[in-house]
Amino acid sequence: MKLWGGRFKKDSNHLVEDFHSSISFDKRLYKQDIEGSMAHAHMLGEQGIITKEEAEQLIAGLQGILEDIKANKVEFMIGAEDIHMNIETILTERLGNVAKKLHTARSRNDQVALDFKMYLKEEVKDIIDLLLDLEEVLIQLAKDNIHTIMSGYTHLQKAQPITLAHYAMCYAQMFKRDIERLEDCYERMDYCPLGSGALATTTFPIDREMTAKQLGFAHVCANSIDGVSDRDYAIEFAACASMIMMHLSRISEEIIIWSSNEYRYITLDDEYSTGSSIMPQKKNPDMAELVRGKTGRVFGDLQTLLVMMKGIPLAYDKDMQEDKEATFDAVDTVKKALLVFAPMLATMTVNKQRMKDGVKYGFINATDTADYLVGKGVPFRQGHEIVGHLVAYCEENGKALDELTLDEFHQFSDAFADDVYAAIDVEKCLADRKVYGGPAPEAVKVSIQEMEDWLKNQEANKLK
Description:
Blueprint: H1 14-20, H2 23-26, H3 30-46, H4 52-70, H5 83-95, H6 108-143, E1 149-154, E2 157-163, H7 164-189, E3 191-192, H8 208-214, E4 219-220, H9 224-229, H10 232-258, E5 266-267, H11 286-309, H12 323-347, E6 349-350, H13 352-357, H14 366-375, H15 380-397, H16 406-410, H17 420-423, H18 426-431, H19 441-460
Parallel strand pairs: 3-4
Antiparallel strand pairs: 1-2, 5-6
Helix pairs in contact: 3-4, 3-6, 3-8, 4-5, 6-7, 6-12, 6-19, 7-10, 7-19, 10-11, 10-12, 11-12, 14-15
């Protein structure tokens, strides 16, 4: 007989049991479910709803189940539907009638909402730690490449001079925002739903603040219907996860391009590359490609949650059982991607000379040539046009701008003088871009220092 089966005259059809059961995936919530039940039992005892002796029996029984699950001594049952009913069934087998008092003043609705929030809170902290590890890798990459000149791109066309350090700190800023988004998400999920009951709380004199504090929540849900029907926190997490994966996918795309024979900007370590079953020369950036590919499934997880929730009336509906697999998948995918990505990035070899050589014929000092003319009194738009004609001339003659003779420069403007060569030297062009946030070494050093200071603050103020 089901624990809820009092009003039913028939057992569930075996097809219904299989379709209805969630134990195959929500069993990962066992720790949170048991901890929540222990806090609830403690509160029931303190409030005199059950005796303190009964509360102690329940807590001891639950602790025993927790230890047995960790030791792989428990086999969950499909017929018990979910992790909550499985644990209660096992507890009843072990303790008898006293176990039947555990669910006093509680519903599976607030129980599952509690477990899910506790689980996500823990996972958010773990993902933030992985992102902080990645930030350390990016900072080190930047420190090692303060003077590694490369072409910055727009439209995948060479644009202006930057350094690999400046590039690395760009992604450091992206992942910093990801961490801040997760921290904001954490704050909004830090509200305890336990005590909401099915949707309308309970007539028993429970103490919601007691259980919330014991379970590490900062607040109690202010509305019992919202407490059981809210899944905004899961959707928000999936949105944060999607952003993380999008950023990982972008840098993966560049790693894939940069490791190609055409670019050869970087070489991935053998440990983070794969070969071909037929082509012995191949060294494939499969980890980066998989990260790029798995991004789509996390986007899909977000879409699943949004579509699941969009038409559900208050309060709880069985549709909401579908929140688990999508969220679990987003958690697992992001964690696995970060676990492989940071060491892949840390162990890759930067081909500094190849990056510098790539600067030569990309006309990335064209803007600086126009700025040079502005310094000689030429209006920028006129200077822009002059340099455009210069670039066309260079392309026709197979030259770089700094390879033109002064006579060739004078064919386009008398404003050019001998000092043009120093002005458009790529290293000078880079060094002159020293405004805050720019690619000049002195500006990048400021960026690195700020990020290191932020990381120290993060370490000192970790989520509790």
